[in-house]
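User: Structure please.
Assistant: Input sequence and predicted structure:
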Amino acid sequence: MSEQWQTLRDGFLPDGFLWGASTSPHQTEGNNTGSDWWRMEHRSGGRLQLSGDAVDSYHRYEEDMRLLADAGLGAYRFGVEWARVEPVPGEFSRAALAHYRRMIDTARRLGLEPVVTLHHFSSPAWFADEGGWTGPTAVPRFTRYVEEVCAILGDVAWVVTVNEPNILALMAGHAKAMEEGYEVDLGADVRMPAPDTGIGERLVEAHRAAVAVVRARTSAKVGWSVAQQSLVPAPGAEAAARCTELRYAWEDLYHHAARDDDFLGVQSYTSQTVDEHGVVPHPEHPDNTLTGWAYRPDALGIALRDAWAATEGRVPLLVTENGIATADDTRRIAYTSEALRHLYAAVAEGVDVRGYLHWSALDNYEWGHWEPTFGLIGVDRETFTRTPKPSLGWLGGVARRGGGLVG
């Protein structure tokens, strides 16, 4: 494959292949006071660190975008925060919508293709009070919100309805269990439970409703993104059967729902082994990342092939997240370089991949913790000074070379 990797500029990747980076609103904007996540942080009794000002991207988004564009990247994935757009049920903020429209315009002016996510984990606190994704109002509430946001999406080419619905189903299942008095233990030495498929089916319903709205009101390509686990069975028939069962709960329920979409977002960080009892807890290891995940850049190739097979080769794939939590930027470059080699190998086999968006553009709030750093850009949380890391320039160089890993 090495010679083929060097011929990318000669047409190996599809025309218009997107090279960029991703963020989410709650993790970067700051002071998302109306969201369920903000409330959960403040009610956690210290178990969760507070997002606070985050990295103040609500005000500094142009600087963030300019750093990406100046490095040579051509796309930026960011989200619209539902809690800001609809602070109380049925009341929509024109100022908030105008803010996100300015973000779209800024991206366009700087030469970045905006990839807009409509829901990235956080919801209005009032939505959670109505039962969240398990409540009777979930689908109509989300649909109405999407209708409002479509007013600012007229020239946006890529729209992600829901980020990682499988993880949303997992989190909603945990919340439901805790409400019913059950202890939920997610320690590193505990077998990870599968997402609740009942909640997953509700999310499928919401996604399909949102897709219909986006298609009716915009010309955007629309899909959703799935947190790929890159499940690999341990030796033995029982492990293989269990892996197939878990792959449905973790991924294929959501892949099947995407078969009529315009694209499917693939999000990959690591791989998981499955035995006859379920997902095998990953042991501590010196090579583990700051999140405790195994160092598996090859997981991206597994994820792309799994998604392509599950959608029957009918839906183009867009890597909407891939990255590593590390304080060592040379390791970030090594991980990303190897992950891209596996992406290229999948493309060479016929998998239709339309872009690669790195997670993340910035070191940011990682859902309860500040320590895991995924960013191409470092941020001083006292002054909000942005410092591009060598990995940003490296990935920008890859983009300028049309995918070539060596200059």
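DSSP finds 14 helices and 13 strands in the chain.
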